[in-house]
Design a protein that fits this description.
6 strands
């Protein structure tokens, strides 16, 4: 898998990343959510550090051209040109934190 698509939504006051396969449209996945903050593409890379520990990095880029969402506060859809954009550094850090966080099911 080369990359995944993602959206970041605001839920209960928290920014939550949602990752999904590239064959789906951003708009299809975002359809049930209000408060979409950003959208784009994410790739993951694993490396082995000198201490033998495996580490991974997340890269985010791009924008959705299928998503019509409410823009972030203080911005309008015109700020995004012909699509809804990613926040590369902020989204990558958010996705990485969420993937590293212990989850209770």
């Amino acid at each position: 898998m080369d990359h995944l698509k993602y959206i970041v939504v605001l839920s209960r006051g928290l920014e939550c990343p949602i990752l999904f396969p590239a064959l789906l449209d951003h708009a299809d996945v975002a359809g049930g959510f209000h408060g979409v903050i950003s959208a784009g593409f994410a790739s993951f890379r694993e490396s082995e550090e000198a201490d033998g520990e495996a580490r991974f990095s997340v890269s985010c880029w791009g924008k959705s051209t299928t998503l019509e969402a409410n823009p972030r506060p203080g911005r309008t859809l015109a700020d995004f040109g012909d699509g809804f954009s990613s926040r590369p550094d902020e989204d990558a850090a958010l996705i990485k934190r969420e993937l590293e966080r212990p989850h209770r099911y």
